[in-house]
Design brief:
The chain is α+β, with helices and mostly antiparallel strands. The protein has a single domain, classed as Bit1. Strands 1, 2, 3, 4 and 5 form a five-stranded mixed sheet that branches. It has a four-stranded mixed sheet with strand order 7-6-9-8. A hairpin with a 2-residue loop joins strand 3 and strand 4. Helix 3 crosses helix 7. The longest helix is centred in the C-terminal third of the chain and has 21 residues. The radius of gyration is 17 Å and the shape is globular. It catalyses: an N-acyl-L-alpha-aminoacyl-tRNA + H2O = an N-acyl-L-amino acid + a tRNA + H(+).
Length: 270
């Protein structure tokens, strides 16, 4: 895992500067060629007759995104290393599309990892330039990924939990990308502190995590405000701040990622 996790190192170099940006700041993409944008495609399996539960689908997306980044093929010298390193060294963009039936089966042969959680399936793919995306992916719809909200149980103690901003509604596709960013950031921060053993255990557990919408009290308690370094060091909480390309305003904090969920610690406020 140590060799593979090295691919995440560029995230560490940029994390602090990202969080230090003013709330409305975003990258200048005015001179960007859309065909040359590099992104990670994610495909959500949403069958017409039996759609998955929204929470399970998001948990599968969160696990799939980090699973493809830390696949053995991404280690130095591996067949996926260069495209993954190039993507992580630039802007971390993802796009989620939906598929069912034969279209879902068709993308299984493309380089990536499929994760299933409680019957919900998501496949995250090796990042590539938009112009190089295979037709099996580009023909899939981005819109129409919305699913009805469900009522999941409490987060599982001892596993990471990704708290969604209760004031920022997002489609299932947008949220899938955001929770994928969150698991990548947590893994990079763990590596940065030399906590490879924890990262190994998480990988062995299939990168399981809980995705929940935070209530106002939990959001305010865990939000790092203007001190993200202390929030990670003392509470193991990091944030996903969106660049604002779709659905939300630039600088919006969409997810608070808590490395290990401990309800007793939350109640104590420490």
């Amino acid at each position: 895992m140590f060799d593979v996790a090295a691919v995440l190192d560029p995230l560490l170099a940029r994390y602090a500067s990202w969080l230090a940006l003013p709330g409305a700041a975003t990258a200048d993409t005015s001179d960007e060629d859309p065909d040359n944008v590099v992104l990670m495609p994610m495909v959500l399996r949403i069958e017409r007759k039996e759609p998955p539960r929204r929470t399970a689908l998001l948990e599968a997306a969160a696990a799939a995104a980090i699973a493809v980044c830390l696949d053995e093929r991404c280690k130095p010298g591996g067949e996926w290393h260069e495209p993954m390193r190039e993507w992580i060294s630039g802007r971390i963009r993802k796009v989620a599309r939906r598929a069912r039936g034969a279209h879902w089966e068709a993308v299984q042969s493309l380089p990536g990892i499929t994760v299933e959680v409680d019957g919900a399936q998501v496949r995250a793919f090796l990042p590539a330039r938009v112009a190089d995306m295979p037709k099996e992916l580009t023909r899939l719809q981005i819109s129409g990924s919305e699913l009805e909200a469900d009522e999941p149980d409490e987060p599982i103690a001892g596993l990471p939990v990704l708290w969604l901003n209760p004031e920022v509604p997002m489609s299932a596709g947008k949220t899938a990308a955001q929770v994928g960013h969150a698991t990548m950031m947590m893994a990079a921060l763990l590596r940065g502190e030399g906590l490879e053993a924890e990262l190994e255990r998480w990988a062995a557990d299939g990168f399981r995590c809980s995705v929940r919408e935070a209530d106002e009290e939990t959001w305010q308690l865990l939000h790092p405000k203007d001190d993200p370094e202390t929030a990670w060091r003392e509470r193991r909480v990091t944030v996903v701040r969106d660049a604002g390309f779709t659905e939300v305003e630039p600088g919006t904090v969409t997810v608070l990622a808590q490395w290990v969920h401990d309800p007793r610690r939350e109640l104590s406020g420490s």
